[in-house]
């Protein structure tokens, strides 16, 4: 599942990738970290990885691993779901969303003060208790989890089924997140429901890869898996999924990447903006893919990229927002006013820097309370992302103008600090695919832009100039990869107090 940690199309003026050979090879004098050594840590058999699946399904997994054009698989993993898990997952119902904390939040507060060390200590000290209203509890930060994760894990949950997830974040130390098999599988079920809510039918098809989780980076965990919990009729084989790296170094021979993707023709592609655009490039260069839907996560998706998905594949694009720590939080569909909070045990607040709720429609930091992962229930977790909180016509909470990580402000010529979210609309209107806007300490502005053409980039630079009343230097890039790793829509400032 894509999160804000994981994490573009052949445009005029840029070289079109050669479909016959891997491209974008990058020198790697140091080499990947040891944890990415292929199959460097194997401890389970396939029957232990998928205890609920018949041998015939496991044979299909192994055949996918051994495909002659397969990439270098780095990892072997399974969903660990047993029959009791599948029964519990099938019985899950929808959680009705509302602007006020639902009943399950009060139950979580009470349970946390009985079982979670952080809140047990708070109860002993009289700082909060099982009946405390949510808004009176202190917020939790990523730093809290990095420095003392154990303080947030309930003491009454057996730890014999912990799966390990990692979150590198955009800043700060990496975080190891304990995950429960059912929580991971519930993300898949949510993904299936969101795809089908677009009017798309997603059923198991043994002739195609069910789900492709796509990255494009120097080193990555890659593997084949089977989706035990995927909704299907009795006797229908579990669809396969794979996590694949588009980077040339991940493939054994020229042409393997294109052959493998074409022969597996994934039904749904889950990815982030950079690998999505790379895949679109390959499709426009002749790679025959027919995705039913595309799910973008981890990075901002521009209207230009959304249009390309429609033009190339005619498929809906869902922009799914979440973090590894919280799981999926909200989704923006084709015509949604913003990112609508998903129907699960997730409650969203928007707070100011002091932790106070802002007025409806005002921007602030997105703070999430979630009770989906038994190993890590979270009360008022500060995401570092910013948005305004509104509601849909039917009263569901929606994040408006969602902007990843800390909002950056820019100093205009009159000395007014302007939020980067204002520039988002300006740059999107110019048709940019991706960008980086930087202001130096003296106030100078540089726009680095990936655009359909030079005229669009120049129009964007003029729009930023008019917005700030300052001259704007322009650097037109051929490739989103030239922006470097990380979020392709980004902001930075060296002006003291604004960056």
Automatic annotation (TrEMBL):
Presence of keyword Ligase: yes
Record protein name field: AMP-dependent synthetase and ligase
Per the record, the coiled-coil ranges are none
> Segment Disordered: which positions?
1-37
Which UniProt keywords are given for this protein, alphabetically ordered? Answer: Ligase
**Keyword Ligase tagged:** yes
- Domain AMP-dependent synthetase/ligase, by residue range, is 221-368
Lineage: superkingdom: Bacteria
GO MF terms listed in the record are: ligase activity
